């Protein structure tokens, strides 16, 4: 019976690795395409979205290594230490990003400067608005199957990224429809609210060594599972 349960767990771990691999490839494409679009259009919102995706990629790589190591080794203490250091670095990068984009957004509002239209940026925002929530749902289900704090935390991060994508999409659509010069800066500030939340979560994970989890009373995925990966 135990052998069967372990085999099932290994099967779920393998699937989780494939999902994380797909997620990392999407995040990388998302960061590159939105970054290119940001440079072409001079968009603060796209810049913030691209930079956050790059930081999320680093965090995702750590989780991928964690899952890969768990599949073959019961002891993953060194991965826990690496994850803690990574959380501290991610938090520092996110706080720096929030400060920089906030300054740039304030400057753009003061100078009344907008952005050029970006069909590529709009396409990335639409794709991310659809793909990222789906990835979050799959990760959440696998996290529950594996009783994995780390995977549930990554699912919550993916959902936060989906919220960023929705904020970005709303800003780009409003700018395209009405040409409001201030929409890009406002959307960037909206994205920064999510970035700061991610930064605080990462800082707490680095300080306490606890898994990077978001806590929502209405979200069952945020409830602590019975065991850790």
UniProtKB/TrEMBL annotation:
<dbReference type="GO" id="GO:0008324">
    <property type="term" value="F:monoatomic cation transmembrane transporter activity"/>
</dbReference>
<keyword id="KW-0967">Endosome</keyword>
<dbReference type="InterPro" id="IPR058533">
    <property type="entry name" value="Cation_efflux_TM"/>
</dbReference>
<feature type="region of interest" description="Disordered">
    <location>
        <begin position="209"/>
        <end position="229"/>
    </location>
</feature>
<dbReference type="InterPro" id="IPR026765">
    <property type="entry name" value="Tmem163"/>
</dbReference>
<feature type="transmembrane region" description="Helical">
    <location>
        <begin position="85"/>
        <end position="106"/>
    </location>
</feature>
<dbReference type="Pfam" id="PF01545">
    <property type="entry name" value="Cation_efflux"/>
</dbReference>
<keyword id="KW-0968">Cytoplasmic vesicle</keyword>
<dbReference type="InterPro" id="IPR027469">
    <property type="entry name" value="Cation_efflux_TMD_sf"/>
</dbReference>
<protein>
    <submittedName>
        <fullName>Cation efflux family protein</fullName>
    </submittedName>
</protein>
<feature type="domain" description="Cation efflux protein transmembrane">
    <location>
        <begin position="22"/>
        <end position="203"/>
    </location>
</feature>
<keyword id="KW-0472">Membrane</keyword>
<keyword id="KW-1133">Transmembrane helix</keyword>
<comment type="similarity">
    <text>Belongs to the TMEM163 family.</text>
</comment>
<keyword id="KW-0862">Zinc</keyword>
<feature type="transmembrane region" description="Helical">
    <location>
        <begin position="180"/>
        <end position="200"/>
    </location>
</feature>
<feature type="transmembrane region" description="Helical">
    <location>
        <begin position="150"/>
        <end position="174"/>
    </location>
</feature>
<feature type="transmembrane region" description="Helical">
    <location>
        <begin position="12"/>
        <end position="38"/>
    </location>
</feature>
<keyword id="KW-0770">Synapse</keyword>
<feature type="transmembrane region" description="Helical">
    <location>
        <begin position="44"/>
        <end position="65"/>
    </location>
</feature>
<feature type="transmembrane region" description="Helical">
    <location>
        <begin position="118"/>
        <end position="138"/>
    </location>
</feature>
<keyword id="KW-0812">Transmembrane</keyword>
<dbReference type="GO" id="GO:0031410">
    <property type="term" value="C:cytoplasmic vesicle"/>
</dbReference>
<dbReference type="GO" id="GO:0016020">
    <property type="term" value="C:membrane"/>
</dbReference>
């Amino acid at each position: 019976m135990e052998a069967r349960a372990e085999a099932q767990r290994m099967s779920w771990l393998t699937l989780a690795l494939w999902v994380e691999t797909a997620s990392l490839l999407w995040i990388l494409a998302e960061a590159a395409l939105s970054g290119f679009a940001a440079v072409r259009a001079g968009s603060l919102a796209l810049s913030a979205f691209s930079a956050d995706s790059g930081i999320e990629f680093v965090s995702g790589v750590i989780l991928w290594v964690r899952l890969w190591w768990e599949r073959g080794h019961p002891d993953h203490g060194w991965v826990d230490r690496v994850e803690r250091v990574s959380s501290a670095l991610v938090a520092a990068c996110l706080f720096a990003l929030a400060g920089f984009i906030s300054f740039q957004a304030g400057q753009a509002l003061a100078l009344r400067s907008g952005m050029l239209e970006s069909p590529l940026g709009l396409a990335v925002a639409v794709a991310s608005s659809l793909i990222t929530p789906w990835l979050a749902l799959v990760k959440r289900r696998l996290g529950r199957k594996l009783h994995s704090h780390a995977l549930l935390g990554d699912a919550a991060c993916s959902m936060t990224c989906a919220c960023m994508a929705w904020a970005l999409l709303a800003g780009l659509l409003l700018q395209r429809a009405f040409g409001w010069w201030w929409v890009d800066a406002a959307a960037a500030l909206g994205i920064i609210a999510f970035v700061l939340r991610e930064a605080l979560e990462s800082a707490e994970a680095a300080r306490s060594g606890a898994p990077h989890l978001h806590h929502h009373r209405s979200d069952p995925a945020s409830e602590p599972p019975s065991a850790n990966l």
